[in-house]
């Protein structure tokens, strides 16, 4: 198998390894100012009268090259410590501008403008700063083909709506981003605007339709001179208090009462290399994960990472050719929620030189006590990632991810990379190997995972080819791998049509096939679908999909195909609704599996009667019928309502009510949250769990009424000191 890796991957690597990145565009030179603007959304500051601006915005969705519905100007300026940007977004129907006063990162359905900033000008990654018309922020990091929206950076913004549209202003402290240690400093930028009610997305510079979504190769270069390189030092002390009560013989009693002090520090070794350390970290979440159907599963559920310490630099751990198709079992090699209860950790992330990226994590995780481990144990997580930039957005990388215990270890290591083959196509690859030992050397297991992913995307058609070979004994305990022991070939073809119609603006037809050999049984399974997604007037989407598929489980082949229907969109400024219904053949996963069928429904409704108030309602329903006798084995409905009142950009109150009918459980959750900037926060939470039981004659028995069985109170405050 190592010979196969050598033949497939190393020739490409050796050919491109030392090529230099190339840029051909004339640079933009923002205005250097000694009088910074007031960040209030009002463009009356003198700096905006003098600074250069760009205005040639063109759409990239639903089609390329069209003028946006309103003129847009993006202004640029800077001083020794900050970058400044402003937008003037004109709109002939200002009363229809979709906006909200919400918590950060909750503006995807609003109108917004954005700055996509390649701060190293190396076409490997970018920061994205999103701002809605009220000045509410969203941010993300993009690298390795994946946008990570869980990032929270410290920056400042203001916005206001008027009779001609809206304006926003942005200040980005240089301490909040990483950039090259050089003078002048060169960065890359793409300015972006979204008009919600028209579902229009546009950029300046306009994107080339023959390059598809290869944004990193289409940036306009920016030049900044004499930037200050002060040493970054941040200190984040946090105080938490929690009280948990649980039912004991019919009465709520205190199960745990705990107060903690934690501290996290960040030190900038250079402007592009940052060291983080944390002691006794608070990794608690301020809101419970939304309920999911958690029965009849072949693999564990996936929950997004929300803990701040793990979020910065998270994008560096993305492995090329992972999550390459909807049937790809290798989703990630580093899934930090496998670190459940860390007692401490350290990170080092950033650039070494112009083309080398380094990211490391070391965390110690406290394992719960058990019969076999009465005193508990610690798991150690050493993780190391290296990437070297090649030409354009190509790169080669290496990764090591380990989980070490006293009598057990799991280690994954290997190489990956991406090669830009043409201006519209890329080839991604990885060759990974794992080693695992349980209890004794005689139970040593070694495995491999090899992946190749070729993708091409243009205005008119997208297609991709994926090859995956995963050994039976491949293990990645630090990652999220849904299945081992397969050989898989898959292909996707997505032609895009643009009818001359005011109702249907675009149709994406999709053909997908995946052929998989299960190595444990030597049986083949197939997955094939055809779908049509229609982009209708406004932002409405309608999609139909039919699949024919089989799946091998415990040496048997079962049918799993069916049809899917989705419809939804932002119907008015106040109302979003979406419904997905699926009827599929399904497997009952057990030691004695059997064939069945399933109905699956997901519905979402978001109603926003004012800029400050929002009501979210979601409903999930799954059932399963056994084919042999048409018996209903289970039905699993979950209803979740969330009401949020956002007093201003900093303070909100949120209440959640979730009913799991399958488990007869009612969850209530209340949160009051104040966030001035990421890190400077106060959270107060209170929640309860109710079950349909009662205590009678020394035991719990079913009841028609709810009994509170758990209660929790949570308080957290922290303050970010930045020197």
By CATH, the topology of the largest domain is: Porin
Kindly name the structural category: mainly beta
The end-to-end span amounts to: 52 Å
Q: What percent of residues adopt helix (DSSP H or I)?
A: under 10%
Descriptive overview:
The chain is mainly β. It folds into 4 domains: 33-224, Immunoglobulin-like; 231-272 and 282-295 and 662-723, no CATH class; 298-497, Porin, CATH 2.40.160; 501-636, no CATH class. Helices cover 3% and strands 58% of the residues. The strands form 4 sheets. The chain has a 24-stranded antiparallel β-barrel.
Record the SSE blueprint.
Blueprint (H helix, E strand, L loop, with lengths): L1 H7 L1 H7 L14 E2 L13 H5 L2 E2 L3 E4 L10 E7 L3 E9 L21 E7 L6 E7 L5 E7 L2 E3 L7 E7 L2 E9 L11 E11 L4 E5 L15 E5 L8 E16 L2 E20 L2 E7 L28 H4 L18 E3 L9 E11 L3 E12 L9 E13 L5 E10 L3 E15 L2 E14 L1 E18 L3 E10 L9 E2 L4 E12 L8 E13 L4 E13 L5 E13 L2 E4 L2 E9 L4 E14 L5 E14 L5 E14 L5 E15 L4 E10 L4 E13 L2 E17 L2 E20 L2 E2 L1
Parallel strand pairs: 1-4
Antiparallel strand pairs: 2-4, 3-13, 4-5, 5-11, 6-7, 6-12, 7-8, 8-9, 10-11, 12-13, 12-14, 15-16, 15-41, 15-42, 16-17, 17-19, 18-27, 19-20, 20-21, 21-22, 22-23, 23-24, 24-25, 25-26, 26-28, 28-29, 29-30, 30-31, 31-32, 31-33, 33-34, 34-35, 35-36, 36-37, 37-38, 38-39, 39-40, 40-41
